[in-house]
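Hi all, posting the design record for the shared folder.

TITLE: backbone redesign
STEP: 1 of 1
STRUCTURE INPUT:
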């Protein structure tokens, strides 16, 4: 049976090689490993592993209508591969990276409405491409842009909270995200600065959560799962697309005093950040939304 304690050990490493192709262009490639220690589910709904069923019954410790889940998650190990180009031409910079990350034993933690289901995926992977760059077209003006493409997948996840999730796309990872920034810094003759700043962040539509355990069909007597699919279907309508515009105006005095006016989410884009099964209310869901349009003023003094 479960000993109630864990002991892990690991050596992580990073290897990287780079080459200056010219005075302004550098190419590189690298590989790195990572490690996350084992975890124990301490929520009130923590359930023993199914593999311990026979031992619990033999010891007379199994309670009536005992159900099983996962109280323990094994360590998580990752390997990341990355190659890219970094360029700096003074007024223009550009960085491009291509990467692949493989996580073995990915620790999944899903809220069930009364506790958490903790478990390991056999393998999760994500392929990605990143670009970021800046340009300074005029004195004091800097324009920036970053863009990311991600393609995640559960390559092997037979014992998820929703049964065999192998091949399913993990939730809450947008395929495309991009940020555009603009800053203009005007210096006056007395050393004061007027700084205008704005940024726009976009995330393509993505499913907010993979599934809702409260909608899984179970045997009312034994608690055994009869059908996982309703739990997956219940989550599909809940998707998020982010379109977020922020801006600020700051007057920075030479004596260290800074006065500013700012606005966040100026487009008042509303979406659900997090959705989950309502506590102890099977068939009901709760959610947290993003912040609405917000304005404010600020003052800061630099010594």
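Okay, here is what came back for every position:
SEQUENCE:
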């Amino acid at each position: 049976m479960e000993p109630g304690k864990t002991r892990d050990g690991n050596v992580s490493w990073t290897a990287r090689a780079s080459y200056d192709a010219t005075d302004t262009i550098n190419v590189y490639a690298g590989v790195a490993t990572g490690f996350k220690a084992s975890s124990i589910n301490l929520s009130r709904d923590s359930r023993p592993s199914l593999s311990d069923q026979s031992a619990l019954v033999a010891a007379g410790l199994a309670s009536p209508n005992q159900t099983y889940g996962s109280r323990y998650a094994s360590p998580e190990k990752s390997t990341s591969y990355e190659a890219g180009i970094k360029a700096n031409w003074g007024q223009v910079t550009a960085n491009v990276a291509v990467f692949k990350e493989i996580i073995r034993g990915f620790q999944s933690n899903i809220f069930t409405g009364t506790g958490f289901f903790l478990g390991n995926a056999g393998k999760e992977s994500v392929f990605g491409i990143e670009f970021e760059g800046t340009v300074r077209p005029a004195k004091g003006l800097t324009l920036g842009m970053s863009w990311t493409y991600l393609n995640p997948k559960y390559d092997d996840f037979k014992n998820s909270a929703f049964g065999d999730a192998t091949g399913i796309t993990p939730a809450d990872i947008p395929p495309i995200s991009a940020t555009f920034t603009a800053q203009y810094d005007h210096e006056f003759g007395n050393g004061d600065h007027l700084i205008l700043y704005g940024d726009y962040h976009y995330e393509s539509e993505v499913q907010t959560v993979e599934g809702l355990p409260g909608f899984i069909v179970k045997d009312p007597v034994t608690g055994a799962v009869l059908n996982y699919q309703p739990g997956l279907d219940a989550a599909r309508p809940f998707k998020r697309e982010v379109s977020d515009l922020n801006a600020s105006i700051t007057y920075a005095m030479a004596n260290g005093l800074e006065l500013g006016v700012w606005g966040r989410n100026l487009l008042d884009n509303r979406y659900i950040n997090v959705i989950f099964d309502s506590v102890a209310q099977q068939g009901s869901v709760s959610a947290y939304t993003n912040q609405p349009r917000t304005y404010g003023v600020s003052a800061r003094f630099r010594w």
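COMMENT: The helical segments are 53-58, 229-235.
Let me know if anyone wants the other runs.
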